[in-house]
């Protein structure tokens, strides 16, 4: 027995009409746009868990929750040839950082164009639980944030907090508010041992000490009263850099942060803090100088910039299906090395002139990928800190190399398990050998074939399996896709607009009966 997007949509439509509600009325109850309700009822919207719960509550219809119990799954019919144009949406990782940074501001914050994804829903549940008022406004992708005078971390939603690693980025903002507080252990993707030690090392220079208990991080703060401080990060990580920036933003005086990440989400955070009156020198470099302020009380609107990882996902969809598509609004500064590697492999592109994102800072281009005969790269493909090849874009080269002629090596030196998760591509026909926990040997080209497969428990490998399934002959049932919904907004419907054939279902795979 299974439920599909279409059957759920009909159920919602019938429940709405039985209450004599318009689509506009239901949209108001859900805090979303009327167009989103129309897509939901037409079976063209990928429903998140939080949206399912909101629908059931608004319509007083627990049957919706019953029908969608168990995992959400994708049925993918292939092989697919895509065509058309698609826009890159805003960055999940930047949104998470800026949402956490909104706690620094006692004024009204409006974030424009924020993604409606599971990861954002989880952090919003955490924010709401500690007293922050959140309201979706506009067309349902703008978020108004009003924090209370006093936050309540002792009321934190532990279940939501444990499902997102971004909870770690509450340390930087909260150390300004409390002498002691606790946070639940961080969750997120299964990518092996992702130590929190770099966070503790950096924040200790700001007076924060953390003790790990059975279920929580117990934090204590001794105020730093010096006029200047220098911090060298022991790891050039994105979230540790963001945490240190947020800690420095409201610590009066000058903080010099060395070995900092210059990656896209860090830059977005810095641009946002600049709008709040915090001066930051060296944005995009490995040395940041933050001129902290004691208080922030500013009404601010900020546009999150476009996501280079989603851009790479969409470009990969065109590459592996040998299609011609145009991916608009690609943040080129964070894709330069990826384009250089693909060019070396024989991929043909066309680029538009550059233009600027809504944040007034990020450089964008429209990129058209052409069907190309790829060959394996001469050297291994490996990530590096910005401005190198992005660690989160590395997995897409596994599926790309599987379509190329020759022998490729993917070296993921950062995560312990991701190479293991990527080896799941072999279940769709790829010739992949796991050399060790960090290295894959891939021999192409691949004759992809569809089958039923469990989604890997990590976001990018899971999307790679989905993209390979687009090129596969026959039907692929990709089971339990929650991890994809954590990082992508309505990906099946958006790919379907380009010509893909992806259906969402709950329960057992659909049959022809």
Automatic annotation (TrEMBL):
Cellular component, GO annotation: cytoplasm
One Pfam family linked to the record: EPSP_synthase
Catalytic function, reaction form: phosphoenolpyruvate + UDP-N-acetyl-alpha-D-glucosamine = UDP-N-acetyl-3-O-(1-carboxyvinyl)-alpha-D-glucosamine + phosphate
Sequence intervals crossing the membrane: none
Entries under CDD domains matching the protein: HTH_XRE
SMART domains assigned to the protein according to its UniProt record, in alphabetical order: HTH_XRE
InterPro entries xref list: Cro/C1-type_HTH (IPR001387), Enolpyruvate_Tfrase_dom (IPR001986), Enolpyruvate_Tfrase_sf (IPR036968), Lambda_DNA-bd_dom_sf (IPR010982), MurA_subfamily (IPR050068), RNA3'P_cycl/enolpyr_Trfase_a/b (IPR013792)
GO molecular-function term, one example from the UniProt record: DNA binding
UniProt subcellular location: Cytoplasm
Biological processes, Gene Ontology terms: cell division; cell wall organization; peptidoglycan biosynthetic process; regulation of cell shape
EC number(s) recorded for this UniProt protein: 2.5.1.7
Keywords carried by this UniProt record: Cell cycle, Cell division, Cell shape, Cell wall biogenesis/degradation, Cytoplasm, Peptidoglycan synthesis, Transferase
Predominant subcellular localization, coarse grouping: cytoplasm
Pathway this chain belongs to: Cell wall biogenesis; peptidoglycan biosynthesis
PROSITE patterns: HTH_CROC1
This protein's record includes keyword Cell wall biogenesis/degradation: yes
Record-annotated HTH cro/C1-type domain positions: 12-66
UniProt keyword Ribonucleoprotein, yes or no: no
Function: Cell wall formation. Adds enolpyruvyl to UDP-N-acetylglucosamine.
Family: Belongs to the EPSP synthase family. MurA subfamily.
NCBIfam families (UniProt xref): PRK09369.1
Protein name listed in UniProt: UDP-N-acetylglucosamine 1-carboxyvinyltransferase
Species the sequence originates in: Tessaracoccus aquimaris
